[in-house]
Amino acid sequence: MAPGRLIDRGAVPGPGNRADGTKLIGATFSPDQCRSGALEKTQAKVARVAGVAMNLQAEARHKSEDIADDVLLDAVKAIRRRVRVVNRAYDIPYIAGYSVDGHTVFIDRHLPRTFRWLLKTVRVEPFLLTHEIVEKALLDKLRLHYLHAHQIAVRAERDAVKAAGIPWWVYQGFMKRHEKPIEEEKLLKVPASLDLTPYGDEKDFALLRRLVRKERDK
Alpha-carbon distance 27 to 203, whole Å? Predict the structure, then answer.
């Protein structure tokens, strides 16, 4: 290998590749850059990207381009791995929300973690996280209107619930029993970083904004 050239050791012999399975991928580094560690940093970055690609392949345990429950459940698990923090320490209007930076999903502190249906114990967190992360991504990355992002997110949540073998009406009935409207006596502890975008059309939005502001000023 020529000094200061970045290679891909996963390449197979062929046009543009070396006989030993390495491939020059275009970056040339001066001796000074090599001494400063630029080459090593770039090689580490290439390795991380390759690792991410391998992890994505591992996450896709089931293969189908048609509508398939097992593929959707793989996606639900993959979404969960991308949530940095799940915080259950606060009162959250309408059960769940997310922080402004998208790093935290908030789930209402009084929401039970499971419910029973027939002989099954159903964990609700995976479905809530699917909704919140899909919605937040559509808002921040594609700049969709909240109502459009919410419509897509609630359908992702619904299909994930149904893929897990739970009727949507059973799940929705459980959630409705635990929803908190925007009322001061019910929202005693609101996170300061709560993204207020989903609540903008609520009649009591001003109250919620005041409660969040109070937390930020503490």
Answer: 57
Query: Who's near 7: CB < 8 A, 6+ residues apart?
Result: 1, 18, 22, 23, 24, 25
Q: Do 163 and 130 meet the contact criterion of CB atoms below 8 Å apart?
A: no
Taking residue 99's Cβ as centre, other Cβ atoms within 10 Å add up to 18
SS3 assignment, position 72: helix
pLDDT at 103 over 90: yes
Bridge partners of 85?
104
pTM of the model: 0.73
Q: Are strands 85-87 and 104-107 parallel, antiparallel or unpaired?
A: parallel
Task: Report which of 191, 158, 205 is spatially closest to residue 92, judged by C-alpha positions.
Answer: 191
pLDDT (average), residues 70-95 = 93
Closest listed residue to residue 181, CA positions, set 204, 212, 201: 204
The pLDDT, as a whole number, for residue 72 is 93
Site of tokens 């290679």: 7
Give 8's contacts (C-beta < 8 A, 6+ positions apart): 22, 23, 25, 46
**Lowest-pLDDT choice from 43-57, 98-112, 116-130, 178-192:** 43-57
Instruction: Give pLDDT tens digits for 141-154.
Output: 999 999 999 999 99
